[in-house]
Design a protein that fits this description.
The complex is a heterodimer of chains A (106) and B (157). Chain A is of the alpha/beta class and 106 residues long. Helix content of chain A is 42%, strand content 35%. The chains are: A alpha/beta (106), B alpha+beta (157).
Chain lengths: 106, 157
């Protein structure tokens, strides 16, 4: 899993690239939580456009970051989810809990 | 001769594979890739194949996270796939781990025995939503077998 962070105006954007399963989730969790603790962002944006695979472990990761961001006082959004991410988020009803952003509307 | 051959029984698999591998998380993607390559011969759509891979990933992850969590012996997962002439693929994921005491409860959405591990409790729900059939056979101490059935080319269902 490739993880890229960028911070702009208090918005921490974390872009993930790869397959989000149980094997990769622990590393992603550590990385994002460390970035939240370090940067204290106003908003956490998870960019999941390049996540080609996501199962319920990925769902657990997204739910966990929702809790982590909220407890740190940050808003959280999921940006440009891939088809795999969006399908499983909708199945679990996470799309009702976490706002989905689209950056393609240029 | 042809008449007999054409009467293919839906109950007989046309192709079968069986493999076993260590119950390690690095093998989750391996299991998905194997099933994906095997099921591709039925010419599924991208979305059908993605569904099957996700369901297999859930079953295999359950073996790794739950079945062998307290075990010190050999932790092995058996994966079996069968394709049928009517466009079905059946994948069996078997472990010799701790088993499930209450299968019905384990299959409830959001049920998890490991909330601290950030388990969503959605594994069986995902298998059910992404496949046409999910069967679970399990006994405490005797391991678990999950049988996933996916029908390809079934637009209506």
């Amino acid at each position: 899993m490739n993880i890229t962070n960028s911070l702009q105006g208090g918005v921490l954007t974390v872009s993930l690239c790869g397959e989000l399963d149980h094997h990769g989730a622990a590393e992603v969790r550590k990385s994002i939580d460390a970035a939240i603790d370090r940067e204290s962002p106003k908003k956490l944006r998870l960019r999941l456009a390049e996540v080609q695979f996501c199962d319920s472990s990925g769902l657990g990761l997204i739910m966990g970051r929702y809790r982590k961001a909220r407890s740190a006082g940050a808003e959280i959004t999921v940006c440009d989810p891939s088809a795999a991410v969006e399908k499983i988020m909708r199945l679990a009803g996470l799309d009702k809990l976490i706002k989905i952003e689209r950056s393609t509307e240029k | 001769m042809n008449g007999v051959k054409e009467k293919k029984k839906a109950g007989r698999a046309t192709e079968v594979f069986k493999i076993s591998f260590a119950a390690k998380s690095v093998n989750e993607s391996f299991a998905r890739s194997v099933v994906s390559a095997f099921a591709s011969r039925l010419d599924p759509t991208v979305s059908e194949l993605a569904d099957l891979k996700t369901a297999v990933s859930e079953a295999v992850t359950n073996c790794i996270v739950h079945a062998y969590r307290d075990s010190r012996g050999k932790a092995e997962i058996l994966l079996k796939g069968s394709v049928y002439a009517d466009g079905r693929v059946v994948v069996e994921v078997k472990d010799h781990g701790c088993g499930i005491a209450d299968v019905e409860r384990a299959m409830q959405p959001l049920f998890t025995t490991d909330p601290a591990g950030e388990r969503s409790g959605m594994g069986f729900t995902v298998m059910g939503a992404f496949c046409d059939g999910v069967k679970v056979r399990s006994r405490p101490g005797k391991g678990t077998t999950v049988v996933l059935t996916k029908r390809f080319g079934d637009c209506g269902a």
